[in-house]
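In the laboratory, one determines a bound structure by crystallizing the protein with its ligand and collecting diffraction data. In a computational setting the workflow is compressed into a single prediction: the sequence and the ligand go in, and a structural description comes out. We illustrate the idea with 1Q0.
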Amino acid sequence: ADSVEEKKFCLTEVLDVFKSCLTENKEVLVDQYVAGWRGLVKFMNSLGSIFSFISKDAVSKIQIMINHRNGNNGAEYVTIQSMVKYELDNKLVDLTKSGNFPESGCRTILRLHRALRWLELFLERLRTSTEDGKTSVMCADAYNESLAHHHSWLIRAAAGMAFCTLPGRSTFFEVMNVGPPEQVVAMLGDALPLISEVYQITEDLYTEYNLLNLP
Ligand code: 1Q0
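The predicted complex, in structure-token form:
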């Protein structure tokens, strides 16, 4: 009977999924990238329903990418690199204004990519914070430095309110389910370089194809 108990969230496993994103020739695997976000959303849901407007948007973007992978052209979507090439070659991206392709893989991944920068900044702040550090401030600072630039004032206001409800650093570390604080810090130090690398590779790719401002 005890086998029905749901497996507890562990942040290490989620960040490990992000590590497995990269292929040998430094391409980013879409399935793993999306699975990483899925795990993070699960974690976010455990922080309370005030975050549900964020997780709804993340889930819908995750679903768009799963649909691409399951579609007839799923093989073109194995890596972010192959996706970009395929969608551009076949004119499946709205490049300057929204139009026929509101669910292109390129614009959808761009939204998650921008959020990955937030994650990187936030986790780096958590890693280097002291015991009395405020997660709400770390989260807001990371947000203002990254995602906020791409959001309307309404979303920024809603996000700001949600951040204020974040639990303290010690509770946060407990929810991560990694172990004592020293172990959390070590795990983050281990995971962050790989998250940065995934971010940088995508950033360079999007820069090369001039896709950083897709509507
Ligand atoms: C821990 C607190 C989580 C805070 C997450 C920060 C992100 C705030 C984002 C607010 C977004 C709100 C809703 C919708 C925005 C869309 O308009 C926007 C643009 O898309 P579109 O189609 O309108 O052009 N969407 C986005 O910018 C995508 C946002 C995705 C956010 C995904 C967040 C996933 C959650 C992560 C929680 C990770 C916490 C892990 C920390 C680990 C440490 C224990």
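Residues 127 and 186 are 8 Å apart (CA to CA). Keep in mind that any predicted model is a hypothesis to be tested, not a measurement.
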